[in-house]
Each structure stands twice: as structure tokens, then as C-alpha cells.
């Protein structure tokens, strides 16, 4: 009988989405095939890394080799499934550490994670490949006082969005409808990130598409339509139920196929690994504009990816096994 592999579900992190990440970890834990894998949840916060043992207690991780002790025995992981939303798991920092200790992991590598985490840099990069993105301006903390707000509004237009450039999309995001709201929106965003992106508002239908690929298959999931009565898809819409998520999306089949093809294309441009989810706006004319890429998408039972997996007639258990075995073989 083949020995069970030991999997770390790495969650937590140092962003405002720490607790959301813990919920994703619980979802992933519930999905993993326990007959096939020994699964542990590892909560990473600052320099305090703790693994949750099966008896309900916690014990520290040895950062030299990501090992821990259980019942007097040294235990090593075979694989890390990263579900941190924000730093250090979504920006390449944790990936660099795991590369150094030669531990395979579920996300893309250091460069891709760093690139996709910075929304402004990602937009400029993908624009070079012909991907449609919104107009945007980058503001760094040390430039905020000298900012010509009128010039920015003339360039970007109103309404516009102000969001942390180097963080998730749940905290620090504001919709600015009037010029005198811009300064306050910048202050809120800079509580989350030293770099802030001011982005043009796009009218249309918001959708999101999940995708993963292995050596022998390419899976692009059904499109989800995101409908919220809030000003935009904010924290309350995401996590407090103030949203309607419709899978498959109520859009023409031709548009759905284009969004899926674009998702697969972007996955290949970046040479991604594991599950990603890309958010878009479809304009009234049918133009598809990329909003952002999530390389560690939410994984609670009601999150987009599990919804899309069910709609595709697949199971999360099989999908996670596909991703792990693609690297461990």
C-alpha cells in the first residue's frame, strides 16, 4: 500500500483577510481526500507559525525545514496547499521560502505571484499581450501630498475606484463619485498598502471564471455572474451575503466562451500553477475587460470556485487531488 502523503494547508497571513483565509482553510480541509492524504492546517501570522494537531492542540513549525513534532515524532510535509489571501502567501514571499527548502506548493512561482499581487503592474504587463484592462494611475505613499487630483480625475474620469495596489480586493477599496472624495479614499487605501491604484469605473456585468491546468488536462470552469446592490463587490458583498452569485452566468454563450478562452490564455501567458480565478467586466457592447487575478481564491463551500466546480459536474475532492498529484505524481 502506498504511504499517505502529508499535506499542509497554509493559511492566515498578515493582511486584513487573515480570518477569511482561516475559513478557506477549513473549506479546503473538508474537501481533501483523507483516505489518500494526511492533512494539517498551518496558521502563519508574522513569525508565529503554528500547526493544528488532530487532538485539537497546536504546536510550532520549525522554519528551518517546515517540520513539526507530534507525539514525540518529527513530521515533515510533502506538499503545501497555500490559501493565504494577501501577504506572504499571495505575493511570492512564502513561495520563495518554500523554493529554498524544496517543498512543492499549490500556487504559481515567486515572479507570477508578485506580478499578480500588484494590480497596477499586472495590468501594464498584460496590456502588452493585448488583454483589455481599465485605465489606471499608480500613487505611492510619498507622492500623495503632491498629487494633482484634478489631473488624475481628468485622466481617469468619475466615478473611479481607489484600491490598494499591493493587497487583496476586500479592504481599503472605495468608489469615488465626486472630486472631494478622492483624498479620503487615498487615505483608506494607504492603510492597506504603500501603493494605491486609481482605476476608471467600468459599466457592465461583473463575472468571474476559475481555471486550473495539469500535465494532461486543462479545466476552465463555468462563468459566474456577480450581482450586488452595494456600490461594488466589497467585503460585505463577498463575505456577508450581500451579493447574488449566478452560475452559469446569464450572458450569451458566445460571451461566456470568450471569457473562458481569455482566462485560459492569461493562465498560459503567466504560466500559472494551481487554481486561479479571474474577474472581468463585460460592457454593454460585449467588450471583456480584466479586473484582477486571484491566485489563492476563496475556498469556503459557498465561494466561487467550489460553486463553479459543482456546476461543472466535478468535485472539489478530485480537483484538489489533481492539483497535488500534478506535482507529486
Characterise this structure:
With 329 residues, this protein is α+β, with helices and mostly antiparallel strands. 30% of the residues lie in helices and 26% in strands. It has helices at 18-31, 93-100, 110-117, 119-127, 149-156, 182-190, 235-239, 253-270, 304-311, 316-328, and strands spanning 5-12, 37-45, 48-52, 58-60, 68-70, 73-75, 79-82, 136-140, 160-164, 174-176, 195-200, 205-213, 218-220, 224-227, 244-246, 276-282, 288-294. The strands form 4 sheets. Strands 12, 13, 14, 15, 16 and 17 form a 6-stranded antiparallel beta sheet that branches. A 5-stranded mixed beta sheet has the order 4-3-2-1-7, with helices on one face. The longest helix has 18 residues, at 253-270. It is globular, with a radius of gyration of 20 Å. The two termini are 16 Å apart. The mean pLDDT is 92.
Amount of beta strand: 25-35%
Which segments are poorly predicted (pLDDT under 50) over 5 or more consecutive residues? none
Q: What structural category arises from helix and sheet content?
A: alpha+beta
Count of alpha/pi helices: 10
Mean pLDDT: 92
Q: What about the largest sheet?
A: 6 strands, antiparallel
- Kindly state the percentage of residues in helix: 25-40%
Number of strands: 17
The H/E string reads: EHEEEEEEHHHEHEEHEEEEHEHEEHH
**If you compute it from the alpha carbons, what radius of gyration comes out, rounded to the nearest whole angstrom?**
20 Å
Amino acid at each position: 500500500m502506498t504511504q499517505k502523503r502529508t499535506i499542509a494547508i497554509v493559511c492566515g497571513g498578515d493582511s486584513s483577510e487573515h480570518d477569511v483565509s482561516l475559513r478557506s482553510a477549513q473549506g479546503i480541509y473538508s474537501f481533501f481526500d483523507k483516505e489518500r492524504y494526511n492533512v494539517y492546517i498551518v496558521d502563519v501570522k508574522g513569525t508565529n507559525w503554528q500547526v493544528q494537531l488532530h487532538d485539537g492542540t497546536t504546536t510550532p513549525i520549525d522554519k528551518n525545514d517546515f517540520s513539526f513534532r507530534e507525539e514525540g515524532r518529527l513530521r515533515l510535509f510533502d506538499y503545501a496547499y497555500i490559501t493565504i489571501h494577501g501577504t506572504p502567501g499571495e505575493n511570492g514571499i512564502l513561495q520563495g521560502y518554500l523554493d529554498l527548502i524544496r517543498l512543492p506548493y499549490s500556487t504559481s512561482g515567486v515572479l507570477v505571484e508578485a506580478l499578480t499581487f500588484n494590480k497596477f503592474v499586472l495590468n501594464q504587463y498584460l496590456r502588452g499581450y493585448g488583454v483589455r484592462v481599465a485605465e489606471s494611475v499608480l500613487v505611492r505613499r510619498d507622492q500623495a501630498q503632491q498629487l494633482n487630483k484634478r489631473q488624475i480625475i481628468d485622466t481617469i474620469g468619475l466615478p473611479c475606484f481607489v484600491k490598494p495596489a499591493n493587497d487583496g480586493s476586500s479592504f481599503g477599496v472605495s468608489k469615488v463619485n465626486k472630486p472631494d472624495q478622492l483624498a479620503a479614499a487615498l487615505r483608506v487605501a494607504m492603510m492597506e498598502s504603500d501603493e494605491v491604484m486609481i482605476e476608471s469605473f467600468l459599466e457592465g456585468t461583473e463575472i468571474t471564471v476559475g481555471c486550473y491546468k495539469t500535465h494532461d488536462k486543462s479545466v476552465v470552469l463555468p462563468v459566474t455572474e456577480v450581482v450586488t446592490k452595494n456600490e461594488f463587490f466589497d467585503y460585505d458583498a463577498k463575505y456577508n451575503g450581500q451579493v447574488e452569485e449566478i452560475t452559469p452566468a446569464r450572458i450569451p454563450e458566445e460571451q461566456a466562451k470568450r471569457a473562458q478562452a481569455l482566462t485560459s490564455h492569461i493562465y498560459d501567458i503567466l504560466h500559472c500553477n494551481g487554481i486561479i480565478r479571474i474577474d472581468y467586466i463585460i460592457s454593454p457592447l460585449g467588450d471583456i475587460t480584466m479586473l484582477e487575478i486571484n491566485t489563492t481564491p476563496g475556498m469556503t463551500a459557498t465561494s466561487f470556485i467550489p460553486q463553479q466546480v459543482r456546476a461543472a459536474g466535478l468535485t472539489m475532492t478530485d480537483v484538489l487531488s489533481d492539483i497535488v498529484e500534478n506535482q507529486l505524481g
